[in-house]
Amino acid sequence: MELYLRVRLAVSEGMTQRQAAKHFNISRDSVAKMLSYSTPPGYQRRSPIRRPKLDAFVSTID
Q1: What's the burial of 27, exposed, middle or buried (CB within 10 Å: 0-12/13-18/19+)?
Q2: pLDDT at 58
Q3: Does 53 map to a domain?
Q4: pLDDT confidence of residue 4
Q5: Domain tally, the chain
Q6: Tens of pLDDT along 41-56?
Q7: Fewest Cβ atoms nearer than 10 Å: which of 4, 17, 20, 36?
Q8: Which sign, positive or negative, has the C-alpha torsion 11, 17, 18, 24?
Q9: Per the domain annotation, does 33 fall within a domain?
């Protein structure tokens, strides 16, 4: 979170995205993503959690 804010502040004060990427040792794509969101987006799972195949029989097994 701190890096996110420092990158946004540096670019808003006149540093180019390329310079910010080099200065903070991150990719230019990361800098562009940091500038496109006002707050860091949280982690979102792409697919739902898969349940075990034996999940339907757990009560029988126990």
Answers
A1: exposed
A2: 84
A3: no
A4: 93
A5: 1
A6: 888 888 888 888 888 8
A7: 36
A8: positive
A9: yes
